[in-house]
Amino acid sequence: MKRTCTVFFALLCAAFFPSAVLSQVIWTHQYELPTNDRYGASVQLRDGGFLLSGTNFPVLGAQYPRTPTVLLLRTDAQGDTIWTRKQRIRKYADVRSTFLCENTTGHVLMGGYTVATTAYPNLDYNSFLTLFAPNGDTLWTKELPLSYVNTYKGITLGPDGNFVVAANVQGHPQLQSLNVAGQVIWQTTLDFSATEAGRLTAMTPVPNGYLAVLQAADNSKKFVYVSHSGVRGAEYLNANSLDELAPNRLVAVEDGNIAVVQGTTVRKFSPDFTLLWSATTPSNQLSTIGMAIVRNTSGQYVVTGNASSSSHNISLVASTYSAQGQYLSTRTFYSTLNLGTNNLVGNIHIDRVTGEYVVAGSGNISNGTATSIDYFLTKVTGAPVLASPVPLRRPMAEAYPNPVTATRQLTVVAPGTLSGQLLLINPQGQIVRQWAARAVSPGNRYALSLTGLPAGLYFLRLTDAAQQSNTVKIVVP
Length: 477
Prior knowledge:
Keywords: Signal. Residues 1-23 form the signal peptide. By secondary structure, the chain is mainly beta. It has two domains: 2-380, TolB, C-terminal domain (Neuraminidase), CATH 2.120.10; 398-476, Immunoglobulin-like (Sandwich), CATH 2.60.40.1930. It has one helix and 36 strands. The protein has one helix at 6-16; strands spanning 2-4, 25-31, 36-44, 50-57, 69-75, 81-88, 94-102, 108-115, 125-132, 138-143, 151-157, 163-169, 172-178, 184-189, 199-206, 209-215, 221-227, 232-238, 250-252, 258-262, 265-269, 275-280, 289-295, 301-310, 313-321, 327-337, 346-350, 357-366, 371-380, 398-400, 409-413, 421-425, 431-436, 445-449, 456-463, 469-476. The chain is globular. It starts with a strand and ends with a strand.
């Protein structure tokens, strides 16, 4: 059953954190199912809908409820339920969902981990991948050998439509490209050095491939770029200047820069990891545990994490920073029972056309006689959509019509010759289209087809004959 509860949501915001910025609610849904459902991960799908996953457990009362069941909830773009599915792995005592990634055919790859026995809840881990069909049917499941050090650390989509998975396998950090059948297309081992394997702690897509974060035994960090074909590239040592970087805590932003969140601090680095700025949430605001960072349609950085209002309640918070590192505001969403502060209780998705935020999570619900935890999905006012980015230099090309029309055709006109590839990049840093930079008619005009792309905001990266790069923001309605 689904309940629409705008007033309830607003009261949650005001009651727990009166100093937080309140958002105007556009719509909100609470998904009441027979059992308790703790949020694990969410993804916005190509058709505008959402997929939520998390732990499905029968009763409250334990800080870490154990169950062999993952619950999937699929909605349309307005949050209305399309289907729900449960996945059971009966041989395990506990199953957690941590990553979701959709490919171009609507298949979703879920990454997670299990606890094999209740006797050793913090040692016997088994990481797994499960592929779901567009209708939610399970197609296959892969498991890493049972070990605490064998873990998946991220999933993204490559430009060839295959999944790229970051993992630690048999004591070695790796990136793997998997097709929809689960076959390995390429695999790259990313040992920290010739004498130490180290471990991979996070991965994020960047314009020309992927960025992997490696950590040595002495906590030194190494940032390694890997191409879309799996070739190891430039790497930068950052010894002990950052705490351990977990998945979702770094993101590629404008001009190849990298934004990183740790606790209440956000840092921005150049592509070679020179520190550009560092910002911290003011002490008079909420103390957040930064667990994920995204970039909104105004070029600001939105950090999501957890904050505690009491020993038994944890809320999802979102702090916003300008592209120059100025703290702007904090918003608060959902309050839930204390199920462990190391587990993010929700996440924020950015509507790339409207700039509105869609908040996915789980919340604590009481009907007067009993308390349960259920999934939430709420759309709230967000950030303005910038018509064009702030120019850092003279534009090297113009693109029109922008926003594109129903024909999905884009014309790029450059005052001079472009070189290399024209790259169309989504907000997650993934290259979704690329074209050879050769003029197809006089005047350095380039005709590009955007047919088949889902609506949203994209970035067209261009390189001129002097190897200077620039980016044009493209809106696909």
